[in-house]
Amino acid sequence: MKNQLILFWRCILGPKLYQTYPALPPPPVRNDQQPAHIYEKNTAESLSDTVFFALKLSIGLLKVTWPLCLIYFYRRGLLTYDNGLVTLRLTGCIVIISAYFMLLRGVGRYVNPNYKVFIDEFFKVKHNSTPETRQ
């Protein structure tokens, strides 16, 4: 049980997997087909990646435009205590939604056998960095 929880935690916080390298080379494919070793995400992982991309995009946009927004809010008289509470509530909702989609991504990775193999190998190499484990 403890091992499964550790694996689930690693699936939540682990790196993104783009492709795998099979033990046997795949048969040659036509030019219009993708190779068989490209990692295929399931729906939960794809949905959470889309949400995280939208959050990163909006945070990046906010980093650039916050001085203009601050001037606009000041001139409109919106910098009050009540509006600060609304902003904190909105920030809390965004944090809860982010945590939910992190868990959803972890579940999607946990049920994917290719990602389980990858994360086991990744942490073996990370914690025991010998030439044998890197092979």
Secondary structure topology:
Elements: H1 2-13, H2 43-76, H3 81-110, H4 113-127, H5 131-134
Helix pairs in contact: 1-3, 2-3
General description of the model:
70% of the residues lie in helices and 0% in strands. By secondary structure, it is mainly alpha-helical. The protein has one domain (2-134). Helix 1 crosses helix 3. The longest helix has 34 residues, at 43-76. Residues 7-134 form the Phosphatidylserine Lipase ABHD16 N-terminal domain. The chain crosses the membrane at residues 51-74, 86-104. This is Phosphatidylserine Lipase ABHD16 N-terminal domain-containing protein. Keywords: Membrane, Transmembrane, Transmembrane helix.
- Span from first to last CA? 29 Å
CA-based gyration radius: 21 Å
Could you state the oligomeric state of the chains shown?
A: single chain
Query: Low-confidence parts lasting 5 or more residues at pLDDT below 50?
Result: none
Helix content range: over 70%
Shape: elongated
Mean pLDDT comes to 86
**Helix tally?**
5
Give the ordered list of helices and strands. HHHHH
> β content, as a range?
under 5%
Overall structural class, as computed from helix and strand content, comes to mainly alpha
How many strand segments? 0
Main sheet properties: none
How many structural domains can be distinguished in the coordinates? 1
Keywords: Membrane, Transmembrane, Transmembrane helix
Transmembrane segments: 51-74, 86-104
Protein name: Phosphatidylserine Lipase ABHD16 N-terminal domain-containing protein
InterPro entries: ABHD16_N
